[in-house]
Model the fold of this input.
Amino acid sequence: MRLDCPICGNRDRREFYYQGDAVMLERPAPDAGAAAWDGYLHLRANLAGETRDLWQHEAGCGAWLVVTRNTVTHAIHTVELASAVKEALR
Amino acid sequence: MRFSGLRVLREGLTGNKGWSAHWRDAEPKAEYDAIIIGGGGHGLSTAYYLAKEHGLTNIAVLEKGYLGGGNVGRNTTIVRANYFLPGNSEFYSHSLKLWEGLEEELNYNVMHSQRGLINLFHSDGQRDAFARRGNAMINQGDDAVLLDREGVRKHLPYLDFDNARFPIYGGLLHPRGGTARHDAVAWGYARGASDRGVDLIQQCEVTGIDIENGQVRGVQTTRGAIRAKKVGIVVAGRSGQVAAMAGMRLPIESHVLQAFVTEGLKPCIDHVVSFGMGHFYISQSDKGGLVFGGDLDFYASYAARGNLPMAEHVMEAGMALMPMIGKARVLRSWGGIMDMTPDGSPIIDKTETQGLFIDCGWCYGGFKAVPGSGFSFAHLMATGHHQGPAAQYRLDRFRTGKGVMDEEGTGSQHNLH
Done:
């Protein structure tokens, strides 16, 4: 598996740290309640198919990335800078 | 049909013509008292104990593929009770006791081999942690022996004791730990359940769960609708998809875990050996293959195959620990789909839908739990009450923060276990 880092280019999976579902980009407000925080921290759609998850180019530029990929085939579709995705969410 | 030494002898002398199928390949009926989704180890043992302990025989196990075709048919077969936290400790202790009586119970040779399991340690701090774990195991009534370096050498003379990075200081021996024949466990439970009237229905994929006014009414399948007032979801790595049919999201991420088998060799590794610092563990099957594995690939996956970096890491760890295996040729490898929870402990609980139950989150340790999980889940489904220590495997413990069971002490968060 290789990821196309927008800054460094195509790199081996070993250079990346996997955080998990990109739901982690949408942090609830502190007073959003237990259900919202449970959804953010624990509950996962856990899809078999296309997912968006967060990776970090730990052994490269250090950038956080949003990766769209297929969990059934391991195909990587898009790799975007998490900062850009987060900006678009605002 | 019952197995016995006499029977084996007689069949051997008469051309083995008297053996019959081990279970009925049932057709689905329109309605059952209870349905188990998933014909793996946990689903089949649940069906068996529902029939045997609770007299519930009008039940069906629905399996989308073939019985025992998932993780119970592809794992590293380790059976142990070396857990530490209250709840886990009692649960796995009970499960191991069920294993010890399983062959008598099922009249089926599951080849349970209590060859001893040794967890190695490589520092003073690790020795303290293992001494504490061993004491917890002894307190639970199980067995544990703290071995020093020479003690380990008597059991495992072939290890590289002076490895520069991880010199071996000793090990925790769990004499009653060992292995079992994975397929036979599924087959034994299947036969026991079928004999008691349970319908085992293969090639029957559940495509929907019918819920009315908060009460489960049955399931939709590729072989038609089936009604039932109670439905149990026992589908391991596929828990997310089946729970979604009931409108639920679970605290589970499915990950890939790889394992490897070499060509058959003469007996050389007598125990199960676990090298935690290298994320490597190994045993030798009765056919002679070295069966070994490591850690997760660490990304969500349903591919049922892993990537090469983890394969390489596992091989390197094996070579660091026991250079003698370097000439063995790897025959095959595979990747299983693991239902990982944030705290690394499982879930056996009711859901918010009346009559809908779930047993999942076994992470990479489900095999040894097959008897205990089925026993506890059957009790919950039949009575509506939790059985013993399984009461701690609550679905809501992550939301409430109460009763989180982080056996490794690394934190309750996805990607840490």
